[in-house]
Amino acid sequence: MFRKILVTAAMLAAFGHAYAAVDVNTANEDALRGIKGIGAAKAKAILDERAAHGPFKDPADLGARVKGLGGHTVERLQAEGLAVGPAGAATGAQTAAAGQTKGAPAAGNTQKSSATVAVKK
C-alpha cells in the first residue's frame, strides 16, 4: 500500500513540474526551448533582446521587441506555459517557492538550470 502511495505522489509531482510556467524574464535558453513553439533561434532572440534592453514588462512588450512574436503567437506561447510580466512573476514566484533550492542561480546568471526564479521589483 505504501508503495502505491509513493508512486502516486511521484507521478503527481512530475506532472505538476511538467506544467510549471517558464518566466521569460528569468529563463535560460534550455527553459525557453522547452516551450512548444520556441526553437533555438527564437530563444536566442528573446535572450539577446532581454540582455540588451532589460526585462519584458508584459506580453505586448515581448511581442513588440522580439521579431516574429506577434500578439497571437505570444498568446499561444502563454498557453504552452510561457509567463510574461507581473502576472508571470506571480506564477514564477509560486514555481520558485515550490522548487527553489539553496544556491539557485541569480536572474542574470548564464549557468544552465531548470529552476525558475522570479524577481520582485
From TrEMBL:
Under the heading InterPro entries, the entry gives: Endo/Exo/Phosphatase_dom_1, RuvA_2-like
Query: Per the record, where are the segments of Low complexity compositional bias?
Result: 93-108
Q: Does the keyword Signal apply?
A: yes
Residue segments, region Disordered:
93-121
Keywords per UniProt: Signal
- What does the record list as coiled-coil region(s)? none
Where does the UniProt annotation place the signal sequence? 1-20
What are the BP-aspect GO terms? Answer: protein secretion by the type II secretion system
Specify residue ranges for compositional bias: Polar residues: 109-121
Q: Which PANTHER family match?
A: ENDONUCLEASE/EXONUCLEASE/PHOSPHATASE FAMILY DOMAIN-CONTAINING PROTEIN 1, ENDONUCLEASE_EXONUCLEASE_PHOSPHATASE FAMILY DOMAIN-CONTAINING PROTEIN 1
> What is the protein's name according to its record?
Competence protein ComE
